[in-house]
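sanity check this fold:
=====
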Amino acid sequence: MKPLRILVIVHETLVPPETLDGLTDQKADEFRTEFDVINTLREQGHEVRPLGIGDSLTELRAAIVDWQPHVCFNLLEEFGGVVTYDQHVVAYLELMRQPYTGCNPRGMMLSRDKVLSKQLLTYHRIPTPKFGVFRRGRKPQIPRRLRFPLFVKSATEDASLGISQASVVDDRERLRERIEFIHEQTASDALVEEFIDGRELYVGVLGNERVTTFPAWEISFGSLSTSAIGIATRKVKWDRAYQAKHGIVTDPAQDLPPGVASLLDRLARRIYRALHMSGYARMDFRLSADGWPYVLEANANPNLEEFEDFGRAAAHAGLAYESLLARIVSLGMRYRAEWRE
């Protein structure tokens, strides 16, 4: 690939320093993804400019008009503190006819709205846990069709915000308490779904019209499997000390039941298309005790840190991190909005 002008869009607090030397792991983790992407693109010979975005698009427009980047590498996951507004930034790029990496606005909107995405998946007969939505500001009416144990989470937030061991409830009283907690703590509706007790698997997807999937990845909850419920809480995902204490790791999924690997591949592709996604994504599944996968959600903004799940799964499939970023850039350059010639 010839050298390009690449504008890397990040949150205003996540513009990384030139080096991570001297920083603790905890501090470096705050912007490790941004650092890995920017430095790898520079090592490939591209001219790269990071741009921090807060609650204004003035600087973004100026950078596009003045510098005329070949592509924007989008690492933004919110706008103005609202996670569902990142899709509007991408829509703004489309209106400016500016190529960008990652998912298109429609796919971001459909996948971000966990309730709407589950409704669409149900329509397409893609297995997902039975669910109900409890609107903020309304007294919860518990339907009898949902069977305990149930899992309670925000209908819009990601990165496991609001998820803890208390998210799995066994009776109606605890269910009401947890719904109220989600309403108050995340200022969002609560999504309640039947809890699938089993293995947690991730499948990476890369592409636009034609897609590639990566081998299934699995999170092992280590000692938590015997002392607690195996779910991906914030501490499980982001707390290094907690991971080390309990032996929590992610690795290629081993010893899957016959046919499950190919089924996960087919489901990941169907989900990607059903939600009109593009660029890249990660599909999150739970594999039940009887060997049947249920999709939990589709993540249009998986972590692109080199040694996180998506990057490691790509490397396991033979796509090194440098090549992965090059593919993502190429897909962004080739993607065209419906009206663009």
User: Anything to note?
Assistant: Residues 210 and 278 are 10 Å apart (CA to CA). The two ends are 22 Å apart (CA to CA). The domain at 130-194 is CATH 3.30.1490 (Dna Ligase; domain 1). The chain has a mean pLDDT of 92.
